[in-house]
From TrEMBL:
Record-given protein name: HAD superfamily hydrolase (TIGR01459 family)
One GO term describing the cellular component: cytoplasm
Keyword Hydrolase in record: yes
A Gene Ontology molecular function term of the record: phosphatase activity
Keyword hit for Ribosomal protein: no
Keyword annotations of the record: Hydrolase
Organism: Dichotomicrobium thermohalophilum
Taxonomic lineage: Bacteria, Pseudomonadati, Pseudomonadota, Alphaproteobacteria, Hyphomicrobiales
Amino acid sequence: MNETPPDIPVIDHIAPLAAGYAAWFCDVWGVIHNGITPHDSAVQACESYRQQGGTVVLLSNSPRHSGGVAKQLDQIGVSRASYDILVTSGDVARAQMERRGGDKVFLLGPERDRPMLNGLDIELTGPDEAEVVLCSGLFDDETETPDDYSELFARLRSRGLPMICANPDLMVERGDRLIYCAGALAKAYGEMGGEVVYTGKPHPPIYDLARERLSEVAGATPDSAILAIGDGVRTDIAGAIAEGLDSVFVASGLHVDMDESDALDSAAIAALFADTQQKPLAAMKRLRW
């Protein structure tokens, strides 16, 4: 790994760093788009990096399988020329559910996430008949909060049901708002004493799958040649550090008070990582070539 400077420099362009890496593990929601529209500079940065020979792995904590996320990216206007591979937390969750063939599963999440289980040898049931809970999010993330699930979680916990969390994110930006994700529910369930298994960042399984997919298209790639890019301190950056990967932090409304200027407050960035010994190589207001 490259030496990490004691302070976190704020940079405007990632091109000077790009030459030192053969591949990016780039977050999607918060870096590539905001849930509604693409961040054009980020899409262009990925395209430029690929044109110079780099491989872009989009690494998402979405509970959907990668095919579903690719369709979503198409719909909102993210060019397929901006990435080589798409790996999601939902891919990992699906693989784990496949290994639980025959189980009765309670899907805790919106109807739009049901396709992630298509073709699997499982039986979808209600919470009182289930043997395992697959949590992909809130039933209605527009109006609900984790507090609305306390009674349900007490019932699940009393039966000792394990929960597989298909999206460890606590919150994400949707346009100019923050909404709760499956990670917030899993956190609440864990705090009640429930067993939780996480499939996405910052946990190892999603990185293992990303490395496997990367090797299929670009050959064996050492960790020292992979740069992780993301806006989540506890997911993208913490996961990269735990995996021994260099990283760049992209600011978003998750952690930083965003304004209309191009300036990024270096003091605010330093405060975000004040309690961590290992820090990202740099921070950016937005991913830009």
